[in-house]
Write a structure and sequence with these properties.
Layout lengths: L4 E6 L7 H12 L5 E7 L9 H6 L4 E3 L7 H14 L4 E6 L8 H5 L5 E6 L9 H10 L8 E4 L2 H8 L5 E2 L13 H10 L6 E6 L8 H14 L3 E6 L5 H10 L6 E5 L4 H7 L2 E4 L8 H8 L3 E5 L12 E4 L5 H15 L8 H6 L4 H14 L6
Parallel strand pairs: 1-2, 1-4, 2-3, 4-5, 5-6, 6-7, 8-9, 8-11, 9-10, 11-12, 12-13
Helix pairs in contact: 1-14, 7-10, 8-12
Length: about 375
């Protein structure tokens, strides 16, 4: 066996999202003298998120054809890397089982084990093909594999009656701790003055429900013009959301910040996070926000694992934007009597600190290596 455990990570994208944050948080903190992560990139015209950092940390990035552009080349190249890479584990980070390319090859290799990690608990209503393929492939999850999930609901949805292990979407709690000096610097940098700042950190996709978010903020702003909205992320619905903001005459009160790698800094400036997702595996950005002392209002589809502090509240998606706005404003009026504080210690004590999770995962990798004979 090689001196290092080699793990091939599949499921990273160019987006700086929750899955990418989970994988990179792990890779930064795991003992890289013992464990090496390599990555598959099938986004031909784009780099994976954190590509430069991956290479700096000692990982390799393999660029292959996308399945949508060349399904044969994608299949051949991926299986070749799996079969010839001398990996102890192939780690699939998935939002569904619509694409299991390569999984069968892993099971045919005596010294390589398959890990499937569920990062979501639903599929969009209009994704009929994805739903059909997911249902077709679910029986594959009965195989001799490691089944991980970010939450109970994600695990039940992905694996059915099969046993699974919850791996918390842990964060570096010290990095996200509230810092009043950093708050003042960030607010000055963004020219926010004394405004109450709302935020949403999510890609622009139907799942994240930005249209409804803008309706909520419009109702808030109608009642308090000393408010501002920061939107962090990219996605194919961004232009549509920009048009909606312009139509509502909110352009001067909304700022698009694109994809950022300084979320911990931006959270210092934000007072309130709103996340009205229509489905969600976990929601790591909401955990980061709580750690920084940001009050969070999330839809009632969020799993209970995200409710880690007293400053988060669920609101039903059946309620109108006006009802959301009134509930947020009224609750903030009560909380404004309290001084903002960090919740890093509480989150650490509840098992969401990446240092302890990385150590536990390293033990899993080291203690379950199979012989290639």
């Amino acid at each position: 066996m090689n001196s290092k455990i080699k793990i091939l990570q599949i499921g990273m994208t160019p987006n700086l999202g929750g899955v990418e944050a989970y994988i990179m948080n792990m890779y930064r903190k795991i003992n890289r003298q013992n464990v090496q992560f390599d990555f598959i990139n099938w986004y031909e015209d784009q780099d994976l998120a954190y590509s430069e950092e991956i290479r700096e940390l000692g990982g390799k990035v393999f660029n292959i054809k996308s399945r949508s552009k060349n399904i044969v080349s994608n299949y051949v190249d991926l299986n070749s890397i799996i079969r010839n890479g001398d990996y102890q584990y192939v780690y699939y980070n998935v939002n569904s089982l619509s694409d299991i390319t390569g999984m069968r090859s892993v099971l045919e290799l005596p010294g390589t084990q398959l890990i499937v990690h569920a990062h979501n608990d639903s599929i969009g209503q209009n994704q009929l093909v994805t739903k059909a393929l997911h249902k077709l492939h679910k029986s594959f999850m009965k195989k001799d594999i490691f089944r991980f999930a970010c939450s109970q609901n994600a695990g039940k949805w992905m694996f059915g009656e099969n046993e699974f292990t919850i791996i918390p979407d842990a964060i570096d709690v010290e990095q996200f701790k509230f810092d009043i000096d950093q708050r003042n610097i960030c607010r000055k940098y963004l020219k926010l003055g004394l405004k109450t700042v709302y935020g949403c950190i999510a890609r622009f996709s139907p799942q994240k429900n930005h249209k409804f978010l803008i309706d909520i903020f419009a109702e808030i702003h109608k009642r308090d013009t000393n408010t501002f909205l920061l939107l962090v992320g990219e996605g194919y619905l961004k232009t549509e959301i920009q048009q909606k903001i312009n139509k509502l005459n909110l352009a001067d009160s909304v700022m698009f910040l694109g994809m950022r790698n300084d979320i911990n800094f931006l959270l210092q400036a934000i007072d309130v996070m709103i996340a009205p997702s229509v489905y969600e595996g976990f929601g790591i950005s909401v955990l980061e926000a709580q750690c920084a002392g940001v009050c969070c209002y999330v839809s009632d589809i969020f799993n209970d694992e995200i409710m880690q502090t007293p400053i988060i509240m669920k609101i039903g998606l059946h309620k109108s934007a006006e009802e959301w706005a009134i509930q947020i404003i009224n609750n903030q009026a009560k909380l404004n009597y309290c001084e903002r504080k960090a919740y890093s210690l509480e989150i650490k004590n509840k098992g969401y600190d990446i240092n302890s999770i990385a150590l536990n995962m390293e033990k899993v990798f080291l203690n379950n290596v199979r012989s290639k004979n």
